[in-house]
Write a structure and sequence with these properties.
alpha/beta; Rossmann fold; six-stranded mixed beta sheet; globular
Length: 166
């Protein structure tokens, strides 16, 4: 459970009984959604939560790293905004990859450039997506990243980055 000293960190548990018909009911899938914009964070969390993901939300880099480090090995996936109140570069991505090289991190940005995308992929980002993005694209991307993470972890290889999504 989040501590009272971290008000920007929230746990959102997926309600398996409320999943859409045909959706996979798997409570062991976890995602950390990091964005300082409450509406984007809520939209991503709701979209993935409706598909059975257990969601943890963070609004800044400090809260994101606390949440990430508390459950290393349980996180299947991270959606990480590039620009946060306390970070506007790739150091959070680098820290997450260092702590858990098999955890796919999808970088979200409204300020993307080809050089930034190349740098993020070189650091191990699974994908770089430009804001605004279609919420309908998130679930297939999350499933692909999660499946790729499990496959790579089972054979002991680092996760290979994918191309930039537009």
């Amino acid at each position: 459970m989040p501590s009272k000293s971290l008000p920007k960190l929230a746990m959102v548990k997926a309600a398996g009984e409320n999943l859409p018909q045909g959706a996979e009911k798997c409570r062991s899938r976890h995602v950390l959604v990091v964005d300082d914009e409450p509406l984007i964070r809520w939209s991503v969390a709701e979209t993935l939560g409706e598909q059975g993901w257990q969601v943890t939300e963070a609004a800044d880099a400090e809260s994101a790293m606390v949440a990430f480090s508390r459950v290393i090995g349980e996180r299947d996936l991270v959606f990480l905004d590039l620009r946060l109140p306390d970070s506007d570069d790739l150091h959070v991505l680098a820290d997450m990859r260092r702590l858990s090289p098999h955890t796919p991190v999808i970088l979200m940005t409204a300020h993307g450039t080809p050089d930034l995308a190349d740098a993020a992929r070189a650091m191990g980002a699974f994908a770089v997506i430009d804001k605004p993005f279609d919420m309908g694209d998130l679930v297939p991307l999350a499933e692909r990243a999660s499946g790729h993470q499990r496959a790579q972890a089972s054979i002991g290889e680092p996760v290979q980055p994918t191309r930039r999504m537009r």
